[in-house]
Structure formats: C-alpha cells, structure tokens
Amino acid sequence: MELYYMHPMLTECTATVLFCEKTENGYAVALDQSIIFPEGGGQLSDKGFIDDAEIFFAKTIDGRTMHFCSTPFEVGSQIKLRLDIASRLDHTAQHTGEHILSGLASKLFNAKNIGFHMAVDYCTVDFDLFLNDSQLSELQVSANRAVRANLPITTELVNGTEAASRQLRKMADKLSSSTEDIRIVYIDGGNIDSCTCCGTHFARTGEVGAIFITDSQKYKGGTRIWFACGDRAIRHAISQQTELTSLARRFSTSRDELPNAVQKVQTELSSCKLELKIKSRLISELLGERLLSSAANVNSIDYIVKLLDYLAPVDLKMLSDFLIKNAVHPLIALLFCTTKSGTDYRMVCSSGIKLSMRELCDAVNIALNGKGGGNSLFAQGKTAKQVNNDDILMLENYVRTALIG
C-alpha cells in the first residue's frame, strides 16, 4: 500500500515484512505498506529507517517497493517504518517546483519539457526551445507569482483511455494503453499545469516557498535550466549574496554598483592589453634587430640560440615571427624564456633548411626533460627545469654541429 500518496506527510507507520533477500546493495525488503517513496519520475528516493536500520534507497521492482538496507528482517515480522521528513520535503519542493516551471514554460512560450533530473544538490529541466534571458526572467517571476497565490494541487486516478482523452501538458505514450490506473497531477485545475506523474507533490503551491532559476545554457537546440526550490533556493540566494558582497568589497563598491565597477576594470584592462601589445611589438622589433645583427653563421646559415628570461612565453612567438620575416640569410632561431614553473622554448627556421625543427625539438626535449613538438619549420615545448647559460651553450654547440653536419 502506497501511504506516501494517501498520507504524504505521514512520518511513521508499522508494517509487515513480505519479502527479504540479500543483494549487492545490502538487503532488499518489501513491506505490506510503506511511507517511503521509491525513486521514479525524475525524483530521488526517500530516506528513512526500518526499525534502527537505515534505508539507503527505495526502488520499485516488479511492482513492489523494495527498501534497501544493511539489516535482514524476518518475513512476517512487524517493523516500524520512519521517514526522513526533511529529505521528503526537499524532494517534494523540487518536484512541485518543476511542475510549475514546466507548466508555465508550456503556456507562456509553448516550450516542451523533454528532460528532468533531480540530484542531491541541484535540479535541471530541458526544454525543446531556446529561451532567452528575458523569457527566463518572465518564467521565474510567473512561477513565484503562482507560488505566492497558494494554488491547489490535486491528483486524479484514471485509466489509460480516459487519460488519453484529457488535455494534458505531458503524458508518456505507453500510458495510453495501460490497464492500470494512471495518476494525473493538476495545479490550479490545470491552469498552471496538468500531467501524468508518479512523484510526490504538496497540497498547495505556497508550500514550495520560492523558485529560483540559478543558471541556463543552450542544450540540444533548446534550453537547459538549473533551478532550486524551497530551502535550496534560500541557500543558493544566501550563497550568491555572500559571493557578490565579497566581490563588491574587492572592488571597493556596493553590490548595486558592482556591474559598473567590473565594466570599468574591463575597459581599463582592454586598454592596458592594447598598450602592452604595442610595446611588446616594439620590443620584439628592437630585440629582433639586435639578435639578427649578432647571429652566428655556419655554412651560410645564421643561427641564434638565446635565453631571454626577461620575456614572457607569449612574446616568443612575436619575436620568432619577426626574426624569420626579417632575416637576410637563411636562419634558425632557438629561443628560451624562464617562468616560475620552468622554461618555455620555441624554435623556427627559414624554408629550405634541412634541419627539421621537429627533430631539433625532440633533441631539446631529451636534453631538458621537456615536452613539445611541431613540424619542419616550427616547434615549441616546455620543461620544468630552469634553463641556465650552460644549457644554452650546450644547445648552441648542438645546433652548430648539426649545421656543419
């Protein structure tokens, strides 16, 4: 007997053990009646106790609610079943809130719910249409208006034929041919929502407390939203407020002025990035000209092997590109810059040079215990080692020897 439907707020009852069997998940126990809702319809299983044995979860198997716990019980024995009401109320709030959101999304935007998932710390709904920020805001406002209205939530049991004739938001195709009674949930007589569902719901929308859409993203051509209801919504709002307050203090402003403060910093940052890019280009040109003028030469090929520990890794590309573009003779350049985490290196050569940069990179990787790769004209890598002048001298000799070949 499914007492969780008939008496949803009942927290204790006695029951008779009808079945008990050891499984991989402890012992599966079936009772003649239960207040424990088994997972289903996107809703998590209730938690609770059989006597003093904790119920891990409950699941419907072959039409019976199986309670999984660590303790066996004798068939025919009387037990006391207790419900974790806090968990039930949390699950019921999320499930009822999902009905309100899905029903209103359908009525407001003709968006169909194509997926619902409830986890311990978040819930999601997938809609088949893309909903923009303005629409999501309207959905959230409308959902909370329905909560404040404290509208009635009712259920009805009908057969498959009768259910198929109803104007419902959603009904599984397989239910239309079912010979068993089908449970239909109505919110405000269908003005907010009407669909087949096996989950637990409040008697009135006001018990949901609040509905908060916490995030959204495009998903499979539609929209996936994350939401929180009841205590979850309050906890999320408090957490978000705390984070915003902390961020606002870092910007020496209020929460209301935080967007303007962030925008100001972004504008200043963009300006600094542009200025830095211009200066980096100038430095690369000046440094490149100096390196080209002092390049060593063997067999009519210039080569440069330099440790530039005053440059950032991103500058190596700009400098190496300048060297190749402005080289008077065929050129090989092997450049290094050190960071706190090690050393980055980049190597380039003019076209027509037989020494492959991929092969040179392999040799540098072995010498410095680094990782990297590339092609015949360009390669790059990184090592955790702090490269020093002795390493540079060794690699310079290696390049010279390879060119003498």
Tally the helices: what do you get? 9
Rg measurement, Å = 34 Å
The CATH top-level class label of the largest domain: Alpha Beta
For the sheet with most strands, the description reads: 6 strands, antiparallel, barrel
Identify the CATH homologous superfamily of the largest domain: Threonyl-trna Synthetase, Chain A, domain 2
Mean pLDDT: 92
Please specify the SSE layout and strand pairing.
Layout: H1 3-6, E1 12-23, E2 26-31, E3 48-50, E4 53-61, E5 64-69, E6 78-83, H2 85-109, E7 113-118, E8 123-127, H3 133-148, E9 153-158, H4 160-164, E10 182-187, E11 193-196, E12 211-219, E13 222-229, H5 231-250, H6 258-293, E14 296-298, E15 301-307, H7 313-326, E16 331-339, E17 342-349, H8 357-368, E18 371-374, E19 378-383, H9 389-404
Parallel strand pairs: 15-16
Antiparallel strand pairs: 1-2, 1-6, 2-5, 3-4, 3-6, 4-5, 7-8, 8-13, 9-10, 10-11, 12-13, 14-15, 16-17, 17-19, 18-19
Helix pairs in contact: 2-3, 6-7
Description of the structure:
- Helix content is 37%, strand content 30%.
- With 405 residues, it is α+β, with helices and mostly antiparallel strands.
- The protein folds into three domains: 3-83, Elongation Factor Tu (Ef-tu), domain 3, CATH 2.40.30; 89-239, 2-Layer Sandwich (Threonyl-tRNA Synthetase, Chain A, domain 2); 294-404, Diaminopimelate Epimerase, Chain A, domain 1, CATH 3.10.310.
- The strands form four sheets. Strands 1-2-5-4-3-6 form a six-stranded antiparallel beta barrel. Strands 14-15-16-17-19-18 form a six-stranded mixed sheet, with helices on both faces. A four-stranded antiparallel sheet has the order 7-8-13-12.
- Strand 10 and strand 11 (193-196) form a beta hairpin.
- The longest helix has 36 residues, at 258-293.
- The chain is elongated and about 95 Å long.
- The mean pLDDT is 92.
